[in-house]
Amino acid sequence: MGTDRTVASARAPTRRSEADLREVVSALLYITKNGCTWRDLPGDLPHHKTVYAYFRKWSTDGTLEGIYRALHRRWRQRRGHRAYSQRRDPR
C-alpha cells in the first residue's frame, strides 16, 4: 500500500511512460559509475530522454537522494557494517 504511493509520486512529470523504474535507476547508476552522456546509455536501458526526465524530477523532489541513501545503507549492511557510519548524520 505505501509503495504504491511512492511509485505513483515518482513518475516522470511528462506523459505516462511504460518504463520500468528499476531499469531507470539502473540507467542512473550506469551514468554515475561510467560518467557517460545521456545519449550514450546502452540500448538495453530505457531511452535517454525518459531517464533524464526521471532524473530531473527525482533530483528536485529529493527522491534521487533517498534512492542513493537506501542503496548505500544496504551496501554497508551487506558488508557487515552498521547502516550508517559514525561520522555521518543518518537523517
- Coarse structural class: mainly alpha
Residue share in β-strands: under 5%
Radius of gyration: 15 Å
Outline the biggest β-sheet.
Answer: none
Described by the principal axes of the CA atoms, the overall outline is: elongated
N- to C-terminal distance: 24 Å
Uncertain runs are: none
Q: Estimate nothing, just give the exact number of structural domains.
A: 1
Which series of helices and strands comes N to C?
HHHH
| Tally of individual helices | 4
Q: What is the mean pLDDT?
A: 82
3D architecture notes:
This protein is mainly α. It has one domain (2-12, 19-78). Helices cover 57% and strands 0% of the residues. α2 (21-34) crosses α3 (48-61). The longest helix has 16 residues, at 63-78. The mean pLDDT is 82.
